[in-house]
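> call design_seq(struct)
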């Protein structure tokens, strides 16, 4: 079965480091970084649930599909 991969991009110019994204991320793809700014820990963990995108008050996060990797 193939696993879908997603690219998570954070616009740090728009981000106010509120922390909502890393509080709602079920896979801990986005974690708390330096000075409470969000940081991507491992982009391959992202399941594309879009919670971070939907709850970001600054519209600073974009999640887009990447290539598909075949699991053996």
């Amino acid at each position: 079965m193939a696993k879908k991969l997603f690219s998570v991009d954070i616009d740090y110019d728009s981000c106010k480091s509120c922390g909502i994204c890393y509080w709602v991320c079920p896979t801990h793809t986005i974690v708390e970084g330096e000075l409470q700014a969000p940081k991507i820990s491992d982009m391959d963990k992202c399941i594309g649930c879009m919670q971070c995108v939907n709850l970001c008050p600054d519209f600073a996060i974009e999640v887009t599909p990447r290539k598909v990797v075949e699991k053996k």
